[in-house]
Amino acid sequence: MLVMGEVHTGLLQNSGEIPESTCRDVLQLLSGERVRVSRRPIVYAVSPDLLTGVDCRLPSASQSRIRGAGTVLSRSSITGGRVVQGSSYTRIERSGSDRRQPWSHYLARPGVVEVLGKVKSRDLADGFAEDPPADGLDLGAISARFLDVVQSSPLLDRRAPFKIARTRLRWVAEQGEPAIRFTLHSEQMRTVRLVHTGEFTPAVADLCEDLALHDWLLTALLVIIERARIGGTPGPEAAVKLAPAVDHLLHLWMPSARVDDVLSAYWESLDRRPGFTRQWQSLVDRVRDQLAVHTLAFLREKSGGGAR
């Protein structure tokens, strides 16, 4: 069993948090299909599953020319009315025939790409995690397209409170002894290699989307703090630059809130090392300490001014 996926995460292009009803309308990407919404512990809305047909070269670490045909499952989601994601994945399976089948065959197996010819799972997994071919299966482009559809909704005012780049999390799930490895490649690119004993379920995609969400939150908070130049700019100016973190980000941190209990151990592993929550809490404390210092200084100044 081999499953490949990619998640793109970004700030919703709206001046403020959008309500649940607007989330439903923005994510109504497939007419007649229901947008699913959960309200606890935070509002989360997800579009209906969308299919994209593919017939292309598959990634290969050995640079072998491997062909696959089938469909990719995609969806868009909004968390807390503030953060948007585009997510796509597909399960790679050996075709029962050496010939390409009609599209009706592949449409009957949503989210499955069948490999035509011989292939080694590890070769495909390594190729996808490292650097997929430009002329091959591009799950990132599919995820970006569905995220763009949401961002271009006329229901959004396109006045985001701050600028922040999207992040991309590319993931591979295989069968074997349970393990997970998170790798930070650049400011925008991450990979996750996940091994588990059970059969693949959509809960694995949920886990990777949750990891992508919290990685983006952590990245965004780091960027906001860096832009504030704490210690290098006057206190009031730094406080103004830190305010978006309080208004739009801090309340969204709820790791593993939507992760299946069977897979929660993977989140716990990453919380030990590299320590997502530990770093997040350290940054949150720094933001709140700076705002508290600024508030005390402001009150002291007002009090002193009144005494005169």
Automatic annotation (TrEMBL):
Superkingdom of the source species: Bacteria
InterPro entries (UniProt xref): SCO2521-like
Name of the protein in question: Uncharacterized protein
Organism: Planotetraspora mira
